[in-house]
Write a structure and sequence with these properties.
- Two copies of one chain form a homodimer.
- With 490 residues, chain A is of the alpha+beta class.
- The first copy, chain A, has three domains: 12-70 and 124-284, Bira Bifunctional Protein, Domain 2 (BirA Bifunctional Protein, domain 2, 2-Layer Sandwich); 294-401, Anticodon-binding domain (Rossmann fold, 3-Layer(aba) Sandwich); 417-487, C-terminal domain of ProRS (Translation Initiation Factor IF3).
- Helices cover 36% and strands 29% of the residues of chain A.
- Chain A contains 14 helices and 26 strands.
- In chain A, the strands form six sheets. In chain A, strands 3, 9, 10, 11, 12, 13, 16, 22, 23, 24, 25 and 26 form a twelve-stranded mixed beta sheet that branches. A five-stranded mixed beta sheet of chain A has the order 18-17-19-20-21, with helices on both faces. The first copy, chain A, has a three-stranded antiparallel beta sheet with strand order 4-8-5.
- Chain A starts with 11 loop residues before the first helix and ends with a strand.
- The interface between A and B is large, with 64 and 64 residues.
- Strand 5 (91-94) of chain A pairs antiparallel with strand 5 of chain B.
């Protein structure tokens, strides 16, 4: 398979699709809409999981596991939830197959379920049905639980990582004695997500709240982090919901307060998914392939020997062995690719495609000079360095790359953030220079809906601590007190 | 809820069911046959996962993720596989719900799938269908992939952890160029499982191979580890399968050898599941509750202060803080339970129920004497120790407990392992003193089946490196060259 990718400028969408497959991240499966996450892609997801899981535990959360299936009737219990979710789902109706007449297998019609089961699209209902048994008094609160799981939302048009019928995610579900505590939890987890996006993924995000239109089905308030991709489209990278007492009321979950009063429990839920892989790819990568921030790279450094004959390879390998050990002692992950089945040039292209942050090449002349050639993936710059203390130099370089990727993504976002004061200007910006468009909005769902229908742009969020300024809605001309963030989005 | 459990001697089965729920490990969910794994139980499973995952990676394996759903037709492709598996499955037939007439939601009959999807009971078929695209030549081999996932096998009679409709597991699926390499992989993973069982879970296991009757559907050889529970019933704790070229042929996966010849690829698969939680509980626990080997305990040490008044608590807490820090520096996990809502006696019973390996109590007199009271969960022994260097003493004690649990389980197994030379004797042993029964068998499936029907005992395995001795089959009287391991099993 050729390593050549389409160019971003020419066909961004093709470029993305090819990159995901060629860099061995994921591929389409035999099941429509479901992906196979390949080992290299899964290794990145594991790094994300480890970092997030630690952040969740450091903020007092524990993991648990709830059933894959949800009884159909559960969805009807929370009225707004069913409207938002229950429609496009995988429905289990039978529990047995049998041999058919021609050697094929068929569904055993006698094994029909009394009540259909839905493959979870999200777990609020089954979890709050469980919490009913866990919560009697204020002593049982808060409950700070997270689940790592697969979920299914039937999708007609899918794209690897960005929108798939099955995806992997984590969903936090917490229960609290007061609204204030639940809101604080919702905001805390939003901050955890933002920190993860910026410090680990090197993706700058805007923290904000969704408009009522864009809220999670069943939430009183949805907080989100919004990122901007290189093509100027927005991507929602994580959400944290204040659910009020909606699910507690739907599943009758009450607690006795210190004063002995009965009240419904307050809830939050929050999640990020394998969609983050899509955000990671689209924020940093280039026409040569993936670009990974060092903190999430399955291996941070690849070493390629350039040699003629076994003897030279043995001499190089001896030096490499020591360098590798010294780097590993610093917690740097290193791969030494001494395969003789591929040429150096092939390997260089391969690791560029796979986004390995640092490549070290070492040849015969380097042995004589005590040097190595170091190439960084983010800028494609090369320099010749002395082997002495290489581990410290690489350690610093990895930090620089991590920072540089963030700064580059931030500059890109800033360059693609526009203000529009009239609807004409707004539409023109969307067409000519896609990005975040800051514009005044009259605060009504009707206006939001009209703009969406006419331009495909949605309100990504109302930023937290948003600057207040008097203006007029670009659509209705009515007065407005702040600009909100519009964009076309994934 | 009372902490009192049924007694093992009186009702082993009730004791187990109560223990799982009361120790906060798992509970039944609203979905028949599916369990909720509660945070304390899930924390133990996470420790298991971490240890196993490291062992898999240390032996060269990588993780990946394959779809939850499998097209129905895939099951028909490998003839023996469909016989063993495809029958009791969750079948997805529709992909949409809609609002019904009375406000309830109903299945949208217009959204019927052309081909039904099966929720994976195991993933050989979908994975080998994927490998077809990954393998062209010997250079692509071996593929050493593992998946952590949920699977569903419809069960009519379920028990928490031991047999549930949905369970969590890992499934390794490897592809090799030669039969010898695949067999070596199968045996390597059996050894990994045995080491994990013995070193981490403190459960002695017999390594062996299954009879053809008991083989995995589609395997040429199934290796297993078999453990013995306190009630004398056996539990299969892990399996590793040599699949030959069966799945490669079913999904047409060929490779070009170094010499340019086309051949089908050789396969293995291997797995352990949340069933291990059941084995862990039933091997070590007692009438007071769970007993955990230190290496798998969510926290290894609990410290309980015994005090009157705030001032005394403050003095105790100061000492505890230092001890805790010193222990944590050694990698020991410690919980300090200074809640004022519960009395010490209640806490003691709680942590005995939850199987915390070591309890440290510290009161006013201990402050004066520079001592603490240390109680170990496995033997229920208590001793008074000087606070000085407590971290080293506890470190050694935890190692002792880990070893002691293994030795105790080994002694139990040895005491419950019998020889039987006649069918009468065999039946009597099974009734009077359940355990492993070593007996001669004529090697036929018919005899095995008859014995199973008449006694409910199955051949658990033919041990590896089994001692060869001449004898006669207990059932048929025909000649036999070795004893095999019989037992009634979970």
């Amino acid at each position: 398979m050729s390593k050549e990718l389409s160019k971003r400028e020419e066909n961004y969408s093709e470029w993305y699709n090819e990159l995901v497959v060629k860099a061995d991240l994921a591929e389409h499966s035999a099941v429509k809409g479901c992906m196979v996450i390949k080992p290299y892609g899964y290794a990145i997801w594991e790094k994300m999981q480890q970092a997030l899981d630690k952040m969740f535990k450091d903020t007092g959360h524990v993991n648990a596991y709830f059933p894959l299936f949800i009884p159909k009737s559960f969805f009807s219990k929370e009225a707004s939830h069913v409207e938002g979710f229950a429609k496009e789902c995988a429905v289990v109706t039978h529990y047995r197959l049998k041999n058919g007449e021609n050697g094929e297998i068929v569904v055993d019609e006698t094994a029909k379920l009394d009540e259909e089961l839905i493959v979870r699209p999200t777990s609020e209902t089954i979890i709050w049905n469980t919490y009913k048994g866990w919560i009697q008094s204020y002593r049982d609160l808060p409950i700070l639980v997270n689940q790592w799981a697969n979920v299914v939302r039937w999708e007609m048009r899918t794209r690897l990582f960005l929108r798939t019928t099955e995806f992997l995610w984590q969903e936090g579900h917490t229960a609290h004695a007061t609204a204030a505590e639940a809101i604080a939890e919702t905001e805390q987890m939003l901050n955890v997500y933002a920190e993860f996006a910026e410090k680990w993924m090197s993706i700058p995000v805007i923290k904000g709240i969704k408009t009522p239109n864009e809220r999670f089905a069943g939430a009183l308030e949805t907080y989100c982090i919004e990122a901007l991709m290189q093509d100027g489209k927005a991507l929602q990278a994580g959400t944290s919901h204040f659910l009020g007492q909606n699910f507690a009321k739907a599943f009758d979950v009450k607690f006795a307060s210190k004063e002995g009063k009965q009240d419904y429990v307050w809830a939050t839920s929050w999640g990020v998914s394998t969609r983050l892989m899509g955000a990671l790819i689209m924020t940093h990568s280039d026409d040569k392939g993936l670009v990974l921030p060092p903190k999430l790279a399955p291996f941070q450094v690849v070493i390629v020997p350039i040699y003629k004959g076994e003897e030279q390879l043995a001499q190089i390998s001896e030096v490499v062995k020591k360098m590798k050990k010294a780097m590993e002692a610093k917690g740097i992950t290193v791969k030494y690719d001494d395969r003789d089945t591929q040429r150096p040039g092939w390997k260089f292209a391969e690791y560029e495609l796979k986004g390995v942050p640092v490549r070290i090449a070492i040849g015969a002349r380097d042995l004589e000079n005590g040097t190595v050639e170091v190439a960084r993936r983010d800028t494609m710059e090369k320099e010749t360095l002395q082997q002495a203390d290489i581990e410290t130099k690489i350690e610093h370089l990895l930090e620089q790359i991590q920072d540089n990727l963030f700064q580059k993504a931030l500059s890109m976002r800033e360059a693609k953030t526009y203000k529009a004061d009239t609807y004409e200007e707004f539409k023109q910006v969307l067409e000519a220079t896609p990005g975040f468009v800051l514009a005044h909005w009259d605060g009504t769902a009707e206006t939001e809906q009209k703009i969406k229908e006419e331009t495909k742009a949605t309100i990504r969020c109302i930023p937290l601590n948003n600057k207040q300024e008097a203006g007029t809605c670009i659509y209705s001309g009515k007065p407005s007190t702040q600009r909100v963030v519009f964009a076309r989005a994934y």
